[in-house]
Specification:
Length: 436
């Protein structure tokens, strides 16, 4: 059975071809168009996947899309009604796009696929087009390619149709929904609010916030808990919507948010200050704490010793780092598998393929297919110095700091008389070590 999964018309369009439960090919459209975060129809990605599979569009059994646009439109309408008369500017801005295109997404996809297949192909001869829930697609993208026969699955992103956080139990070929946290209470949108406030672009600049975090201090953690986030011991949460503007406006944060953190948002491309670094560190620590509490809750509720993470927020937390915190708290060991595609939106194309078909015998890491025993599962056990991972060695045998260069990793210190030439030779620089 050949199934084509499509993610399109939001950001990071992608396609994936699944054959009898195994990933044959997957690609993001930006790799072909050279337009970062390309959001259009992934025509070239589909061509690539079909070519790799040696089939045509007519040979497919199903074409699957990653979410349900009509349910999402229902959420938009209910949100605007709940906040009316506020939100009129946002409503006027959003409705033309929905009324022109997104409400008729099925017809839009059929038209694009018919054009891709050629003028001789009739719409009626296209494979059946099916739509899955956004978080179901995320959960499938993490569980089915993982090395686990059973696992708890935690999905966290901005928002799907209604869900912003969801828990699943995967067993064999089945994924069972356990519970969810609905919009507007979203850890992903909280993180994006700080992305916006620190001067970066939402849905693309979150990785920059994560990169800033090590340079700051967690001085704003308590204000976040006191004013923005009501976090429960089990990891569930609610946001104080007085500080946010994404439900009714065209920005992520409100003036109360600006007052709380001492000024307006940073202008894009201006100088970064220590305030932005401290904000990044604070929201990073809060995000990790929420995910750790939710992971412990899932472990307690399901008894599963395996955990799969999916969604955009899961990309903000390193499983190895969480394993270190878990060890310090003397928690039980948990194997963690993370969906490893370049960006979260690509997960949904792969996940929509995988739902309802046999679990593939491979675990995806980036663009490589690895056997289950080589998958990126990390085991956090008390007393271990580090989780199983591959780490770059940053010092030579004499203690010089190693830096990447055009001819390999070289020493940052000039040659010294006590070991002339040793650090300067690429053969003496160890690139990667495996640590058990």
């Amino acid at each position: 059975m050949d199934i084509l999964g499509i993610s399109a018309f939001y950001h990071d369009s992608a396609a994936c071809l699944l054959r009898d439960g195994e990933i044959v090919a997957a690609a993001q459209e930006e790799r072909f168009t050279r337009k970062k975060h390309y959001a259009g129809f992934p025509e070239e990605s589909i061509r690539y996947c079909l070519k790799e599979g040696g089939i045509s569009l007519a040979d497919l059994h199903y074409i699957a899309f990653y979410d349900k646009p009509l349910v999402k439109f229902e959420r938009l309408l209910e949100t605007y009604l709940a906040f009316a008369p506020r939100g009129m500017r946002s409503f006027v801005h959003a409705m033309p796009v929905w009324l022109k295109e997104k409400l008729f997404l099925k017809s839009l996809l059929q038209k694009a696929l018919t054009a891709l297949a050629g003028s001789s192909t009739e719409k009626a001869s296209l494979p059946p087009l099916v739509f899955g829930e956004h978080h179901e697609s995320h959960a499938a993208s993490a569980f089915y390619p993982s090395p686990f026969d059973s696992a708890a699955v935690l999905c966290m992103d901005g928002v799907g149709e209604w869900a912003t956080t969801s828990a699943w139990l995967g067993e064999g070929k089945e994924l069972t929904s356990l519970w969810e946290i609905p919009f507007p209470h979203s850890l992903g949108l909280l993180y994006s609010a700080f992305t916006y406030y620190t001067g970066f672009k939402v849905n693309s600049g979150e990785y920059k916030v994560m990169g800033l975090a090590p340079y700051g201090q967690p001085k704003y953690v308590q204000p976040i808990y006191d004013h923005l986030l009501d976090l429960k011991p089990d990891g569930t949460f609610r946001l104080n919507m007085d500080y946010f503007n994404y439900c009714t406006g065209l920005t992520m944060t409100s003036r109360r948010f600006d007052t709380l953190f001492g000024g307006p948002p940073r202008e894009p491309e201006t100088l970064l200050t220590q305030r932005e670094m401290d904000l990044a560190r604070s929201i990073q620590d809060v995000t990790e704490e929420v995910m750790l509490r939710l992971a412990r809750t899932l472990h307690r509720e399901t008894g599963a010793d395996n955990l799969c993470l999916a969604g955009g927020v899961a990309r903000h937390v390193d499983p190895a780092r969480c394993g270190g915190r878990r060890r310090r708290r003397r928690c039980s060991a948990v194997d963690v598998a993370q969906a490893r595609e370049p960006r979260a939106q690509d997960h949904t194309a792969r996940g929509r393929d995988a739902g309802g078909v046999p679990r593939p015998g491979i675990h995806q890491r980036g663009d490589r297919a690895l056997p289950p025993e080589a998958g990126s599962s990390l085991r956090a056990t008390p007393g271990r110095s580090a989780a199983r991972s591959r780490r770059r060695r940053t010092r030579c045998r004499q203690g010089c700091r190693m830096v990447p260069g055009p001819h390999g990793i070289r020493s940052a210190r000039p040659r010294r008389a006590q070991h002339p030439g040793r650090c300067a030779e690429p053969k003496d620089a160890v690139g990667y070590e495996s640590e058990d």
